[in-house]
Structure formats: structure tokens, C-alpha cells
Design goal:
By secondary structure, the chain is an alpha+beta fold. The chain is built from eight helices and six strands.
Length: 254
């Protein structure tokens, strides 16, 4: 516990008022490794972590082919990063969290089919109405109607890791491949960040995914930070998750 407190303290310069909730479980035994924070059962916008569900649907339908296809041209949408104003592939879409690519993919999937996938995935509140947001169902995951809790995130990810969703093996395998982040000393880290604004005020920061270790099995996790003063980087979120996992059962290091 002391280590976890120290790790969270490292982020004081980034998130002075942040409230952190963290859930992790063994994907093979269903053993809960960590469950801390006041919001593990509270639903929030998934933000860009929803790209995991979009990827599964896109590959299952054959819209997405592999890591590099299809390449779609920048459509002129408003973007926050200059690097997004260029052609994107499934891998770059996931790695750089390109919102316009998500919207094009959602449109090609279609609302009714996407709704069906969310039902099969038991994904949060499954609300794709968009709640008046510009873009409708294509932007429902961006501080809008679609919401999911940290506990629901790990339940969903457990099915991804165990490949027991009612979709093709290809869809699951390709989604895993584009979610791979990096190797650590005793395993491989897969994950997706998400950042956005809480309708109740403040900023949200997610990091969800799983860790495959050579000796300790596979662990799915969901980190949620709210009331942020600034968005932590991907690297900062990765370090926090790795250290929190290490503080719970050891054996996990950079």
C-alpha cells in the first residue's frame, strides 16, 4: 500500500486534485488483484478506450484487414494534433488515437450493427444515442451518452484476452496486435489510453489493457483518473499501472 501511495504521489505535478480508481484481475483465474478507489463501479465516458470495441467490430466485419490496411485519407475533420492530418492505418489509428478514423470506421460499421456488437460485448450502458453530440452515434464515446465503469472495462477485456467473445478469432488477434504497447522485463504490455471531459466537471484519464507475463499469467486492468488538472502522458500512465501491479503481487517491472 505504501508503494502505491508513493507511485500516485509521483503524479502530483500533473494531477493535483486527481482521484484514482484502479481494478486488476487475473484473466485466467478471475482472481481480483486490485480494486481501489471510489469509482470502480461508476460509469464514465470511455473516451478513446472505446477504440478497442470498434477494432473488434471492424475486423470481424472485414472492414479492417490487418495492421496496415485499410489506409484512409485525412477527411479534413477538426483535429488536435498536426500528426493526425495525414493518412492513417489501423495501427497508427490505435497508437496515435486518431478520432476521425474512429468516426469513419463507426460510420462504415453502422449504428445498428455497432449496437449489436455492444450488446454481445456487454459494453457498459450500451447507449449509442449520442445525446445530442455532434456526430451522433459516431461520437457517443466522447464525453457523451456511452459510459462504462472500471469494473466493466476489465470484464470486457477479460473476454478479449481469453478470446471468448462471439466474434472471429481473426478480429480478436488483430485487435491484440494493434494494442501491443511494449515489452517489459518480464512480459508484454497491451493497452489503450483515453482522455476527455467529465460532464460533471474536470478532466478524465483512462488507461486500460492487460499484461502478459511469462510466469504470473495474464492480468487485465483499468485505471481511471478524474478531476485532473492536466492529462498525464501515455508513458506516465503505463508506469503507474506497472507500479500498481507490482505493489499488489510483485514480479512486474519495467
Amino acid at each position: 500500500m505504501k508503494r502505491a501511495v508513493l507511485v500516485i504521489a509521483l503524479f502530483a505535478h500533473v494531477c493535483l486534485r486527481a482521484e484514482t480508481s484502479f481494478v486488476a484481475l487475473n484473466a485466467e483465474t478471475n482472481e481480483i488483484i486490485a480494486a481501489s478507489g471510489s469509482d470502480i463501479d461508476t460509469r464514465y465516458s470511455p473516451c478513446s478506450t472505446f477504440k478497442i470495441a470498434l477494432s473488434l467490430a471492424g475486423y470481424d466485419l472485414g472492414i479492417l484487414k490487418n495492421e496496415h490496411e485499410p489506409v484512409w485519407l485525412y477527411d479534413g475533420s477538426k483535429v488536435f494534433f498536426e500528426s493526425h492530418k495525414t493518412s492513417q492505418s489501423p495501427k497508427t489509428w490505435m497508437s496515435f488515437s486518431v478520432i476521425w478514423y474512429s468516426k469513419v470506421l463507426a460510420q462504415q460499421i453502422g449504428q445498428s450493427r455497432l449496437q449489436s456488437f455492444l450488446s454481445q460485448f456487454a459494453y457498459g450502458n450500451q447507449d449509442l444515442s449520442g445525446d445530442g453530440t455532434e456526430g451522433g452515434y459516431k461520437a457517443a464515446h466522447l464525453s457523451s451518452s456511452l459510459q462504462i465503469s472500471p469494473n466493466e472495462q476489465v470484464a470486457f477485456l477479460k473476454h478479449v484476452v481469453n478470446a471468448d467473445l462471439p466474434i472471429s478469432a481473426h478480429a480478436i488477434q488483430m485487435t491484440k496486435e494493434i494494442l501491443f504497447e511494449r515489452a517489459i522485463s518480464d512480459g508484454r504490455l497491451f493497452g489503450k489510453t483515453g482522455s476527455g471531459f467529465d460532464p460533471n466537471g474536470g478532466m478524465l484519464g483512462w488507461y486500460v489493457g492487460w499484461l502478459e507475463t511469462s510466469e504470473n499469467g495474464k492480468y487485465v486492468f483499468a485505471l481511471l483518473m478524474k478531476d485532473l488538472d492536466a492529462f498525464p502522458s501515455k508513458e506516465e500512465r503505463q508506469k503507474l499501472v506497472i507500479d500498481l501491479l507490482h505493489s499488489r503481487f510483485g514480479g512486474v517491472h519495467e
